[in-house]
Amino acid sequence: MKNGSNFIMMFNDIFNCLSNNERYLYAWLYRYRHQFQNDWKTLVTIDFIAAILKVQNVKLQGNDRFLKSMIKDILVNLKNEKYIDFEIPISSTDSIISISYFENGEHHSGFEKLQYDIFDKFTDPLEFTIYNYINRYGSNGRHISDSQWEDILGVSKTKLRAIIDKMNTTNHCPRIWKFSGTYIIGERARQEENQYYTNPNNEVIDNWNKWYNASGKIKPKKHKDEPKIGFAPNPNKPEVKPDVKPESTIEFSKPIDKTVKDNKYIFGDYTRNPFQSIV
């Protein structure tokens, strides 16, 4: 590849066949390309990759031996899936590997640009995948169900929601904007898919700030109008009505004698119904 631009080509089909760690390592290798004789390549060893990932606090599990074995497997799979190319076999973890990349359309068509300065802020492959999957859809955002996320990420719904809640805050960088799906009331009550953004316009940001606080939690409802996108009241919550009979149905069994000194209503017993007769 002869493209020397400062962005990573995130091919559209990268979410169909690679794992979270493979997507991250592909982007990491692409990020550290250098120009060699009018071509752009990454010269690395497995030892070097493992050491730098550790210094950068990238969240990859396992000890050094396991990590280096995993990196080797990822490199081989990225080559097999034609995202990178290099000479094989890899003889040892300290052998220099010259990695080259393919032009758009050679094996994969269509991509999103991921700027280097955005990639540099990621240390968690799961967060990286979430952000980049949403980012494919630009300022229009994307409706995504929890089951779709589970298929893409391969993690439990509990872990998924914890990560998304973390990213859906004003303090997280890079952040996402999530609008909870509206509850549909009826015989088959359900919640619509949540909507996500990475690059929303000002109207979407203002709408998010209107309905959510800085930690991504729904603000207490202070007005009657509903959000255009997002949360609706829980239809299962019972309506609480005051247990007071209308005036037209109140029955007076006997008038209150205000001359009686032991009348508790006179002395301030407001727990008693004032219209109730004294026995």
Question: Summarize this, please?
Answer:
Helices cover 31% and strands 14% of the residues.
Total of DSSP H or I helical runs spanning 4+ residues:
9
Low-confidence stretches: 230-235, 245-254, 256-279
Q: Helix/strand-derived class?
A: alpha+beta
Biggest sheet: strand arrangement? 2-3-5-4
Q: Give the topology string: H per helix, E per strand.
A: EHHEEHHEEEHHEHHEEEEH
Work out the count of structural domains: 3
Radius of gyration: 30 Å
The backbone outline, from C-alpha atoms, is elongated
Main sheet? 4 strands, antiparallel
| Portion in helices | 25-40%
How much of the sequence lies in strands comes to 5-15%
**End-to-end CA span:** 97 Å
Q: How many β strands by DSSP?
A: 11
Overall pLDDT level: 83
Protein described:
- This protein folds into three domains: about 5-120; about 135-210, no CATH class; about 240-279, no CATH class.
- It contains nine helices and eleven strands.
- The strands form four sheets. The protein has a four-stranded antiparallel beta sheet.
- Mean pLDDT is about 85; it is low at about 230-235, about 245-255 and about 255-279.
- The longest helix has 17 residues, at about 65-80.
- The protein has about 280 residues and is an alpha+beta fold.
- It is elongated and about 65 Å long.
- About 30% of the residues lie in helices and about 15% in strands.
